[in-house]
């Protein structure tokens, strides 16, 4: 059975994340530049955070 989450009337993406495995910050920035604009109007923001293993 599939049910809606806590925002039952919301049909839009509230938040999301992508984990990428790269060797440097520069490589992470290169990947981020390839990501689609989350807002769709050229003013979106993508946040990069380092995750330690």
TrEMBL record:
A Pfam family of this chain: YCII
InterPro entries linked to this entry: Dimeric_a/b-barrel, YCII
Superkingdom of the source species: Bacteria
Segments forming domain YCII-related: 2-52
PANTHER family in the record: BLL7171 PROTEIN-RELATED
Family: Belongs to the YciI family.
Protein's name according to its UniProt entry: YCII-related domain-containing protein
Organism: Fictibacillus halophilus
């Amino acid at each position: 059975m599939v049910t809606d989450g806590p925002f039952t009337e919301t049909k839009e993406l509230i938040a999301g994340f992508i984990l990428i495995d790269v060797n440097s910050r520069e490589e992470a920035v290169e990947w981020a530049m390839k990501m689609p604009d989350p807002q769709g109007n050229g003013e979106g923001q993508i946040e990069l955070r380092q995750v330690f293993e």
